[in-house]
């Protein structure tokens, strides 16, 4: 069941308790994670997931409220900064290469959705949170990007998931993911950071625990051409999206995605390919009998006026 949670401003958590930011510690066959803790404030700590980030440098959290219960989790092919408040990633980061994506095409998808055992139980999403919620478990680092079976299995960790509108996830977002893969294949390599935004005073929850994003973003950086930009989409049934500059998205997100990157690169949005929705076409033709969220809201508002 989806519930409602009042939140002041965009992703504005209570800062009355001094937030601590920790990095999880564990090691496995394809996972290397380090442990550290930092006081509240701008998060600019060293990262154990450096091979997934441009220049080996993780994003900085510039909105200090977002550092509360933020924990880094490193996987073989991507790195996550997880929020124990939203129980979603703040971002998932990947270094896409032509060779890695060539390997990924040889891997058949095997669904292995699972809770992230390295996160504290009170901070992580559980499979039961999504049951009958009406939302997909939406990957931030896509399973189709993963270069081997181990990495693909890791991508199904709920620490890499957000509650996502099902039509959005399966059509527009899938098209964006596919377009970014093709761009990486064409250009040789890209650094990609994907994540959610929580905007507004009231945020929906699933399982009364996991916050539902209002928007999703995917940042793309081409290090050879020194070009960057980002897709920005509403988390609803839509074929619409925006391409924005990194600087613009950083203001919305409260995150410095590329510390040390020249302002001129951040302020100019690169030309990103128009996503082709699954099944072909730049936008899926929606069944006209299935109303969008905005259409439903418009009808409800009209009914309220005539019933009064």
From TrEMBL:
Q: Which InterPro entries match?
A: DNA/RNA_endonuclease_AS, DNA/RNA_non-sp_Endonuclease_sf, Endo_G_ENPP1-like_dom, ENPP1-3/EXOG-like_nuc-like, His-Me_finger_sf, Non-specific_endonuclease
Which SUPFAM superfamilies does this UniProt record tie to the protein?
His-Me finger endonucleases
The record's listing under SMART domains reads: Endonuclease_NS (SM00892), NUC (SM00477)
Q: What is this protein called?
A: Endonuclease
Q: Where does Mg(2+) bind?
A: 169
Domain DNA/RNA non-specific endonuclease/pyrophosphatase/phosphodiesterase, residue spans: 74-264
Q: What is its EC number?
A: 3.1.30.-
Q: What top-level branch of life does the organism fall under?
A: Bacteria
Cofactors (names):
Mg(2+)
Q: Which family does it belong to?
A: Belongs to the DNA/RNA non-specific endonuclease family.
Enzyme class (EC, first level):
hydrolase
Tell me which positions the record assigns to the signal sequence: 1-17
One function term, GO molecular function aspect: hydrolase activity
The ENPP1-3/EXOG-like endonuclease/phosphodiesterase domain covers which part of the protein?
A: 77-264
- UniProtKB keywords: Endonuclease, Hydrolase, Magnesium, Metal-binding, Nuclease, Signal
Q: Which organism is it from?
A: Pandoraea faecigallinarum
